[in-house]
Every structure is written in structure tokens, then in C-alpha cells.
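[09:14] KT: can someone run the structure on this one? pasting the chain below
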Amino acid sequence: MDWKKSLRENGFVEVDGFRIELSLDNTFMDIDYIPRVLFYDPPTGRWHVLRNPIPKGKTLEESWDRAVEVLERILAGDERPVLDDDAVAERFVEFLKRLEDSTR
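[09:31] RB: done, C-alpha cells below
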């Protein structure tokens, strides 16, 4: 199954312990929830939040689609991942490339 479709349908993709999950955040106790992408990085043993802006959709599915669009732009090199550590950002991009290569 295509990783993007799997991510949309299951809410996560995982390979070799690296994992991306789609989530929702209600920062500052807002009633509205915004889409978030979480990344589990085995070398650090921590979850990291992708800080790239993801526009909120009208539905949950549309929000997930917009999150996947951000991932596609990162994979294409049109956008850099905004994470708290440059080494984690590099592993994030490598993980996206591995996902893409695995479904070709």
C-alpha cells in the first residue's frame, strides 16, 4: 500500500522503528484543533513535532490530506522540515525517502 494512503487511513506509518503519526493539537486551549505530524526517532528515543504550518481543513480527512501535502513538499525538497534538531530533521527526510522508495 502507498505510504501516503496508509498514513491517511491508519494515522501512522512505521519502518524499522521510525514512525510518523498524524495527530491533532489544540494549542492554547483553543476549541479548534489543528493537524500535527509527530515523528518518533529511535536514535533519540523521543517523539518530535513537525513545526511546519499545516492549514486546518474543514474535516478531519481534509486536515490529514493537508498534513500529507506538507510531507510531500518536504520529500520533494520544496520545504524543509522544521524540527527541534538538525540531525533529527535529516533523519526525518531520509525516512520519507525510504517510505517513497518502498512503494515504487
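[09:33] KT: thanks! Residues 4 and 68 are 7 Å apart (CA to CA).
[09:34] RB: yep, looked fine to me
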